[in-house]
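Running this now, will post back.
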Amino acid sequence: MENVNNGTDAIYSLDERINIFKAIPFGLQHILAMFVANITPIIIVAGVCGLTAQDTAMVIQSAMIIAGIGTFIQLFPIWRIGSKLPIVMGISFTFVSLACVIGSKYGYGVILGAVLIGGIVEGILGLFAKYWIKIVAPIVAAAVVTAIGFSLLSVGAASFGGGTGAEDFGSAQNWILGTVTLAGCLIFNIFAKGYLKQLSVLFGLVLGYILALFMGVVDFSAFNDVQIIALPHLLPFNPEFNASAIIGFILIFLVSATETIGDTSAIASSGLGRDVTEKETSGSIACDGFVSSISSLFGCLPITSFSQNVGLVAMTKVVNRYAIATGAGIMVLAGFFPAIGALLATLPNAVLGGCTIMMFGTIVVSGLQMIGKCGFTQRNITISALSLSVGLGFTQCPEIFGIFPDIVKTVFAENCVAVVFVSAILLNLFLPKNMETGRNDDKPQGISQ
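Update: finished.
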């Protein structure tokens, strides 16, 4: 039987057992970092599809349980499904645009049918990743990680301002909350000692929350009519199968897989100081896909690795699977005990933004470090520079995709990660392998074995 390590070094070890009382704060920190982002896609899509408040609450409840289960599987794989890396799972924003289009036209059941089939396709692709993953060279993964970081900066800024669409967006109170939270994170990180230093995000969130309470801006409406305990509903909506919806979702699942590859690479690089392995990438993608299919059976949207939490790992270097598993347990409990989820839902956006803006910047730096590790050859500079320029530049003026079919616009017009991935893959395939000499006889690098 394994011994539990009560020391502080265990939090920096992937597999060492850790005292649960030391583990809980690190797990809670991860949940607070992703909670709002986990339920926001559901709120958006449910509104477009015309779901009732009761149905929306039921789907949110399922989302917490599914996110917890998905995280457990990533941490502790089942067969070849899961990466055994400190990856936190949640409901994906990547599918929101397409889900809104499909849901408004065909209804919520068609979305669930497409998620069920698309998830199975991504899961199978993950299991057989060794046959195609070599085209994702280290420089491609590095460019994708950098793009993920850049794409999230606006998300962090929007939260800092009070949340997209908020009536008081950019108000003085939101500036105060975000700034105090960010300052709290930095000050705690500077003055805290030992392993406590890695709880700077949690400290900032608590400090910001207390300030929000004194300012009277915490919304407790989530506690209205909350149940003490609630069980998830299997097949609360009947899945319906529409060919065009299924094709569209399969394409977005491929985009989601590219983000997962980037997240998995970033976790290994920034958290463990090494390259990701083929087995880890394969298991991570398979988990994304198959758990997404399970998610649809509980009336929920697709699930994926959360870049917010990749940034948290990069920032704190806390990679212990057992510590992060406590966060997965909290998510499952929040699903069965709605009051826990209701409490987490009261966290103001500006407080969350004060912490995430730093975390997202850390992902950008991790991507740049990965590019540097690949080497600044003329070929690598061309691949990273051009793919990032096209991906970040074109998606900032999505009208440029106006001549393309709707499905292309849905997948690429506002998704810089997808454009960067496709551009980097094509450049990696067609550029001479040794541009300095003009030779083309070097073998491309792949993800490490």
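The beta strands are 89-91, 303-305. More later if anyone needs it.
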